[in-house]
Amino acid sequence: MNKTPPQRPLMPTIQKLIAAYKLWNEYFDHLPKKSRYTIGSKVDLLFIETAQLLFTASALPKEQKLSVIQKAVINFDLLKFFLQIAWEIKVLENKKYVAISEQLSEVGRMIGGWHKQLTNQTPLK
Q1: What structural domains does the chain harbor?
Q2: Model confidence, pTM
Q3: Which residues, at least 6 apart from 76, have a Cβ–Cβ distance to it below 8 Å?
């Protein structure tokens, strides 16, 4: 019998980001071909990199988390920036942009809270 090893549960922040990515993934194939491999790929990559940074931070000792979360915040802001550009140049429809933005808004609050908590816990050098 083939058993998979037990996995540690993902943090709610990562789960919400993955849910937003699943929604993005549905939209990705419907982007205009010329944009799918430019701005579409950039957004896709930023989703993946942000998820990787959040997952990494969740596994690190407390004293090492802040620098990784700071990188995740920057990546997340870039993700929202490129999504907005995609919407502005009409690569992403209004309805789809609103749906994904709503999900990302909650993720942003969660990442911001995590960052603030770590900042308050980290002594100044």
Answers
A1: 12-121 (1.20.1440.60)
A2: 0.89
A3: 46, 50, 104, 107, 108, 111
